[in-house]
Amino acid sequence: xxxxxxxxxxxxxxxxxxxxxxxxxxxxTTPAENETGPxxxxxxxxxxxxxxxxxxxxxxxxxxxxxxxxxxQALTNGDxxxxxxxxxxxxxxxxxxxxxxxxxxxxxxxLSRDNLKIEIRKGSAIVEIPVEDGVQxxxxxxxxxxxxxxxxxxxxxxxxxxxxxxGGYRFDITANHESRVRVIKGAVAVGGHxxxxxxxxxxxxxxxxxxxxxxxxxxxxxxxxxxxxALIQSNKSLKQSDWYKEMERGHxxxxxxDVDAAEGASRHVVSALNGVAGFxxxxxxxxxxxxxWRELKSNAxxxxxxxxxxxxxxxxxxxxxxxxxxxLNGNTEISYRVDADENVSIDVLKGxxxxxxxxxxxxRAERNALKLSANKTEYTINASGYYRLNVFSSDEAxxxxxxxxxxxxxxxxxxxxxxxxGANRVTASLDKDSRDSFDVWSGHRTARTLYxxxxxxxxxxxxxxxxxGEYTFVPGERVCKSPYGGSYSxxxxxxxxxxxxxxxGNRRQxxxx
Length: 513
Known about the structure:
It is a single chain. By secondary structure, the protein is mainly β. Helix content is 12%, strand content 39%. The strands form 6 sheets. It has a 15-stranded mixed beta sheet that branches. Strands 19, 20, 21, 22, 23, 24, 25, 26, 27, 28, 29, 30, 33 and 34 form a 14-stranded mixed beta sheet that branches.
């Protein structure tokens, strides 16, 4: 039997909402609401996630917080799920399901809504994210919309994957530590490739792509489909609930206080100062002069001579200038320098960095210039664009210019790959569509810094169905469907004047911009 710390009990009642999330605000009703009578509180909704939703068989949760009697196992950063003969379904941010097969070990590195990160150490896992079932958008609008999708970084023994579209994904770790993803629907970045169908495998850093035409579902796939169908049915059954009927009549509401938005704002630092640390994951350190290494905090001010390093699965953002965003991948170390004129130089000692330079109204000759170097080769960057610098050893590195240009003796423009081996330098063409997990992650962080995301695009809540004792997804202002098929037809719409949530039923809501 599964240990008590991973048991999922059936609730006798409905889980109360977190403090400050769904409260009655009697004094702030609109005239239209007053005409319909008193409003009623609705319980059972959850906007954060981070629970074991379903489990069967044997396993354990190495969790920081032990489950209370009669409650679901809550999950926090760093928790590990180890399954023997059992299976488990986890819910993360609303709409994000993770299912684990027997003999699987998975560690939850980050459960925050805008930086989900999971490590699959062995076994098999399926990530399901309901797909928006709306009108087809123009490509440029869809691309902009995708930039605000809450990506999932999946770390495996073979390498990293970045899920950046809703859909279904199966991950498998083989006995020889080969890592494989099968895209049921959606898009994932891995090792310089964007995979929208078929299978991508990583072994010893090498990526191979293949079709899944001959793929046959196994028992884990079938179980995942059954879970998806059960959750769809649970969602549909909510139309018969008293709270839904009351919402339809305008007698009940949710007051949504988006605490995550306030917390998230602190993760997107925009400063007029040079050398400010923005978004920082745990496991990032800084060393100043002869002092010991210490943890780097968001909003920290960097000084001349500082060294920064990231752990194996840690990333960070610093702003050398207000319009420059430099991202550090895992296992990266840099040296930060500032001269008497406040000009910044960064030497990448190992690992990978990504640099986004935003457009400004300043003339190129007047704007900031960053000197970026590796292995004693220096480049000056003052043109808007996207750049990637990878240091493989003390004798080999490469600079990728996806857009923009660099100065190094002469000007080298967009679409070029500069390969550095010792004192030799070779310039070759670059496939601008080549992207890996770090590229996708960096691009999404930049988009969230430069633009205000329209949260309603991906709005949704979990609801604990008292009939099943399990959470199901309730989308907001849109119709969603499972990548396996079937529609989440019970949804809600947001009153933009009162900021209250009301049901939308089966109505298909167009995207609003």
